[in-house]
Amino acid sequence: MTSNYKRPQRMRTQRERKKPNLQSKKKLDKNVAVAKNLPLSSKLVYIDMKRGKDAELVEEHLIKLGARVEAFLTADINYVISSFGPSKVEDVQKCSDENPNSPINSVASPFSCIPSPSAPGAAAAESKKSAVSRGKALAHLARSKHKTSTVVTNAEKMGVKVISVEGLYYDSY
């Protein structure tokens, strides 16, 4: 018959408990030495991606390169890695403002062709302003009302370098 009796383990003395493990100390020293030579050591990175295998893979690679991955976007961050890339909204608006013959401004809206019956003088001034399509005008109005901003635009406002995931992989090869 077997018994369920467990033999009590020997109590360690205080001196035995405090004895350092020399092998683990050597490993720690080696890791510290290696960490100083890593390309992203002392860099803070924020990952703006949907959680999944790709995000975990990117996070693992960054940690292996010595980066510290932060959970929140702050001004201390050095790099933002995003699946969306740098924002292009401002570039499109600059191009359309500079070039009046651009295709963005030349698209006529069916609502801008007919003058408004309410004020004949206001229709001429309004038609000059409304060279933008109705959809773009609604999108601009929604952006200005709600003042929503993405992580990428916030990072650009703070002066943080934004790197797209595609750019990250293309630059490495």
Count of discrete alpha- or pi-helical segments spanning 4 or more residues: 10
Per CATH, the class of the largest domain reads Alpha Beta
Biggest sheet, open or closed, and with what strands and sense?
4 strands, parallel
Helix content estimate:
40-55%
Q: Any guess at the CATH architecture of the largest domain?
A: 3-Layer(aba) Sandwich
The beta-strand count equals: 4
Number of domains: 2
Low-confidence parts, pLDDT < 50 over ≥5 residues?
91-98
As a whole number of angstroms, the C-alpha radius of gyration is 30 Å
Oligomer: single chain
Q: What is the beta-strand fraction?
A: 5-15%
Shape: elongated
Strand-pairing-aware structural class: alpha/beta
SSE pattern = HHEHEEHHHHHHEH
- The overall pLDDT average reads 70
CATH superfamily of the largest domain: BRCT domain
**CATH fold topology of the largest domain:** Rossmann fold
Question: Can you walk through the features of this model?
Answer:
This protein is 51% helix and 9% strand. With 173 residues, it is α/β, with parallel strands linked by helices. It folds into 2 domains: 38-87 and 150-173, BRCT domain (Rossmann fold, 3-Layer(aba) Sandwich), CATH 3.40.50; 88-149, no CATH class. The chain is elongated and about 90 Å long. Residues 1-27 are annotated as: Disordered. One of its GO terms (molecular function) is protein serine/threonine kinase activator activity. InterPro entries: Replication_Regulatory_Kinase (IPR051590).
